[in-house]
Amino acid sequence: MIIQALAFYMFAGIAIAAGIMVISARNPVHSVLFLILTFFNAAGLFVLLGAEFLAMILVVVYVGAVAVLFLFVVMMLDINFAELREGFLQYLPIGALVGLILLVELAMVFGGWHFAPEAAKSGAMPIPSPDMVTNTHALGRVLYTNYVYLFQAAGVVLLVAMIGAIVLTHRSRPGVRKQDISRQVSRRAEETVEMRKVEPGSGI
Q1: In the chain, N or C terminus with fewer CB closer than 10 Å?
Q2: In 3D, which of 15, 18, 16 has the Cα closest to residue 31?
């Protein structure tokens, strides 16, 4: 138990510190690297809880795909950070209002659990024996039965984020050459390929 407690505090401490560095690092590449470190430590916490499937999904999907994609996008996009900082004060009241609303909602959720603990017990599902179902089976049954609409909503959020990333990448910028699909398709072989007859001994 002592080893598990020490491992928990180690993973949790590193995850919290890395999460703080994600939002406080000035270099966006460093922020993505700290995000990867946060994911790894969160996976370690899932392993301590006995949720090996969630730990594997977190490492494979988030570390192996999402975080690496973020890293490449941050390195490829020509982001003017000076311009972003200029508009910080303009959007500060809206951001503060959104943060206050989220804080009130979290306070209501945790306050409801504190003042009405029977509500959590009534909404909880009976936990089957570990010998009856596997970790993946139990997770899939809960996710695709009770939370299927929330799962679909998360997919919509990811779709909107993907569309936003595409719009940011393909915005019109002076001096940047873009691919013209219709021009490439309409090209003929005579315009692109030139056949020449090379006499023996006259080559390079």
Answers
A1: C
A2: 18
| Whether the predicted pLDDT of 67 surpasses 60 | yes
What band does 16 get if pLDDT is binned at 50, 70 and 90?
very high
pTM over 0.70: no
Q: How far is CA 163 from CA 75, 159, 166, in A?
A: 19, 6, 5
The token pair at 94 is: 């809206």
Short-list 121, 123, 120, 142, CA closest to 133:
142
Mean per-residue pLDDT for 91-118? 74
Identify the CATH assignment for 7-76 out of 3.40.718.10, 1.10.555.10, 1.20.120.1200, 3.30.230.10: 1.20.120.1200
